[in-house]
Write a structure and sequence with these properties.
Outer membrane lipoprotein wza fold like, wza like fold
Length: 537
């Protein structure tokens, strides 16, 4: 078993592990990834609804105290005024008296006033009346909004205006489909804003003073990508739906022929592919992903081009296309650093992750099986084991980037690209970054005459925890060179170029040689892959 692990560790070094250090908690990493996604409807409250008053005519609106009515009488009796419905529900018209309008619908206001006029005038008096201003109200807004609180408005305001006053719905948390209006602690209306987002339908609703708008929190979501017009994270109003229901809302593009659903069963990822015609038979569950694809491209692959360049971010090329031919087509800008081109590959990242996990499991086994000859030694071992296990937990969150180091001597016409490859073009820079066990880690401007020691002195020198035998120089193309600063041969340190990084690893405080070597190896992998130094204990 030890021989196998040694071989794996050797392969890990040869493959040039490149790692991204993520959050200490796996769940936090997942949440952060979701928050970076684009949610359907998240731009809704950029329309500044709160800055406008809604005075649209609603024939079904029931008059309330505080509403203002414009009245004009002409003929045998002339009168014009703006009257407010008092707390008893009346307005007062001279020579006519009280007219009770509380609870009268907007469409019946004129007929109600005409009935009151007949008590004094038999005929020859014409009436015009309209609701001039709606009742001022105070509404509570709570739940998944950015600023819950009590807000002023009018009884005619739409739910969008009041939600906007509360800062809008919290992106990636608040629900657009689970909104309720409560009156006297009872739910009187359910609102699904997807009806407005998708079809422009927003029913008028008459608020009353003291009503509560409660925005629920997202529970069921799916992520939609690929050949669709709305590639968003989409909120469901139930645990599972037919794919056909989804296609009614997101509208697959004309060239889409299939869809791929990514499911998770017992913690394992499972991918299923279906023709688009089967959308009426296949269900998708909350938390799953669906990617619409065009099978017309089955002989092609998609390659992402990131960084500083002037062309497309995603290109489709025939299978068998070389890295050299794609690089030749990239449009450079004046600040593109063509000498530092980097390649990242998913298959390499997956293999690197497996090797890292094997290394961590071996370290865990060594910690748990190390014996002690005395009580005092057992106490020391117990404390050390807790520290090492915590280190293993943090290191297990590492996610390799899958970088393939591009050597200048290689024939890039023989390097064939794979689906999902990322070609990264860095910017030209005159910065050298120094990290790890130095007094003041920072970034410095490049000086042609400076050595590694000069840059470290500019950071205040090595810290007491520094492992001077393990100083790494990460070149801008991802290649890693090691440097031992502890001996007389320190003057033979590799040359530094603009864009390089200097990483000083830390010492391992352990008397167990096997544990020390394993942790040192893992620290090396983290530093090489993530260009950061992870402190061990």
């Amino acid at each position: 078993m030890r021989s196998v692990l040694i071989v794996l560790l050797s392969l890990q070094l040869l493959l040039g592990v490149d790692i991204t250090l993520e959050s200490n908690e796996e769940n936090q990493t997942i949440v952060m990834d979701v928050k970076r996604s684009v949610f359907f409807g998240q731009r809704l409250f950029q329309g500044k609804f709160k800055e406008n008053k809604q005075l649209l005519h609603n024939p079904d609106y029931l008059l309330n105290t505080g509403d203002e009515v414009s009245i004009k009488l002409w003929g045998a009796y002339t009168y014009e005024a703006k009257l407010t419905v008092d707390k008893e529900g009346n307005i007062f018209i001279p020579r006519v008296g009280l007219v009770y309008l509380l609870g009268v619908s907007n469409r019946n206001v004129i007929s109600k006033i005409k009935q009151a006029l007949k008590r004094t005038f038999n005929k020859n008096v014409s009436v015009y009346a309209s609701l001039n201003n709606y009742q001022p109200i105070s509404i509570f807004v709570t739940g998944g909004v950015n600023t819950p609180g009590l807000y002023q408005g009018l009884s005619s305001d739409s739910v969008l205006q009041l939600l906007d006053k509360a800062g809008g719905i919290i992106n990636a948390e608040g629900s657009y489909r689970n909104i309720t209006i409560l009156r006297a602690n009872r739910v009187i209306k359910y609102i699904d804003l997807y009806s407005f987002l998708l079809d422009g339908q927003l029913a008028l609703f008459q608020f009353k003073n003291g009503d509560v708008i409660k925005v629920g929190f997202m529970k069921d979501i799916i992520e939609i990508t690929g050949e669709v017009n709305h590639p968003y994270v989409f909120e469901l109003n139930q645990k599972r739906v037919l794919v056909q229901e989804i296609t009614r809302h997101i509208t697959p593009k004309a060239n889409a022929t299939h869809f791929i659903i990514t499911r998770w069963q017992n913690g394992l990822e499972k991918v299923e592919k279906y023709p688009l015609i089967e959308s009426r038979e296949v269900y998708i569950n909350s938390g799953e992903k669906i990617n619409f694809i065009s099978d017309h491209y089955r002989d092609n692959i998609m390659v992402n081009i990131m960084g500083e360049h002037g062309g497309l971010k995603t290109v489709t090329v025939p299978k068998g296309t070389s890295l050299k031919s794609v690089i030749a087509q990239i449009i450079s800008t004046p600040i593109s650093d063509e000498s530092g081109v980097q390649l990242f590959r998913k298959s390499i990242a997956k293999r690197q992750k497996q090797l890292i996990q094997a290394n961590l499991k071996d370290l865990e086994a060594r910690v748990l099986t190390t014996g002690s000859s005395t009580t005092e030694e057992a106490k020391i071992r117990k404390e050390e084991s807790a520290l090492v296990l915590d280190f293993i937990k943090r290191a297990s969150t590492i996610k390799p980037k899958g970088q393939v180091v591009i050597n200048s001597e290689s024939n890039l016409s023989l390097v064939m690209l794979e689906e999902g490859d990322v070609i990264y073009i860095p910017k030209k820079t005159q910065i050298v970054v120094v990290e790890g066990e130095v007094s003041l880690p920072n970034a410095q401007t490049f000086v042609a005459q400076y050595s590694i020691e000069d840059y470290i002195k500019s950071c205040g020198g090595y810290s007491p925890r520094a492992n001077m035998k393990k100083v790494l120089l990460v070149k801008k193309n991802g290649k890693v060179l090691t440097y031992d600063a502890s001996g007389w041969w320190a003057d033979s340190a590799p040359n530094i170029e603009a864009g390089d990084s200097i990483l000083v690893l830390g010492k391992i405080d352990s008397k167990n040689i096997q544990i020390t070597s394993s942790v040192t190896q893992i620290l090396y992998q983290v530093a090489v892959g993530a260009a950061v130094v992870l402190r061990a204990f």
